[in-house]
Amino acid sequence: MPTGDLPDALHVTTAEQLRAVSNLTRHRIMAVLRFEPATITQIADRVGLAKGSSSYHVRLLERSGLVKVVRTRKVRGVTERYYAMAARSIVLPEPGEGGPDVLMRHAVADLEESPAGERHVRMAHLRLTEEQFAELAARLAALADEYRELSDPSLPDASLVFALFHPAPRRQTDGGAE
User: Fold this and answer.
1) Handedness of CA 35, 119, 142, 151 (dihedral sign)
2) What is the rounded CA–CA span in Å between residue 172 and residue 151?
3) What is the pLDDT of residue 26?
4) Cβ neighbours of residue 51 under 8 Å, at least 6 residues apart?
5) Which top-rank group of organisms is this from (predicted)?
6) What residue ranges do the domains of the chain occupy?
7) In this structure, is the dihedral angle defined by the CA atoms of residues 13, 14, 16 and 22, taken in order, positive or negative?
8) Dihedral of the CA atoms 127, 130, 133, 135 (nearest 10)?
9) Can you tell me the distance from the alpha carbon of 11 to that of 127, in angstroms, rounded to the nearest whole number?
10) Distance between CA atoms of 16 and 63, rounded to whole angstroms?
């Protein structure tokens, strides 16, 4: 199933869906399926799981509506299922104030496991007007969309994560030792 046949977005709205995407292994399975369908065996190989574990996680994703079977074929009397994402992107709800941001936690876990020398990380502290802040957010999103359209499933995976935010105000202490 070409990704052009998929809905643009699936909004995570249920507790079951949120539990499904909150798991790092299932996040990695969805990353495997973002460009092309794959079987349980192909998913297990790409994620580094046993087939049984891969099957368990894919069933949870399928039950929550995040992935679906897009084709089947018979191989030596066994029906092989190909799974794909249910939408081109998954939209997570905003975390509550002080709550964990699941997407950033997964990104950091993936970053920490990536090979040294194959990562580009930069943090910049900026002082921007609200208009500049909004413009930068729009430009970053457009750049990510532009490169997503250029993505070729035959090429190695690359992940782009960015977070533009206003830090929480720092609380003043009384100056005494705590």
Assistant:
1) negative
2) 46
3) 93
4) 40, 41, 44
5) Bacteria
6) 9-113+121-150
7) positive
8) -140
9) 32
10) 9
> Is residue 17 exposed (0-12), middle (13-18) or buried (19+ Cβ within 10 Å)?
buried
Spatial separation of the C-alpha atoms in residues 52 and 58, rounded to whole Å? 10
Count of beta carbons in the 10 Å neighbourhood of residue 65? 16
Question: How confident is the prediction along the chain (178 residues), in pLDDT tens digits per residue?
Answer: 444 577 888 998 888 998 898 898 998 999 899 888 999 999 999 999 999 999 999 999 999 999 999 999 988 888 999 999 999 888 888 776 666 677 788 888 888 888 888 888 888 899 999 999 999 999 999 999 899 888 887 888 888 888 888 887 776 665 555 4
Residue that has been written with the tokens 């990510």 in this structure: 144
3-class secondary structure, 109: helix
* Contact indicator for 18, 96 with CB cutoff of 8 Å: no
d(CA 10, CA 85): 10
Q: Tokens at residue 53, please?
A: 């574990």
Q: What is the reported pTM?
A: 0.70
Would you state the structure tokens that stand for residue 42, as one six-digit string? 């192909």
Alpha helices in the chain (DSSP H): 15-22, 24-33, 40-47, 51-63, 102-113, 130-150
Architecture of domain 9-113+121-150: Orthogonal Bundle (1.10)
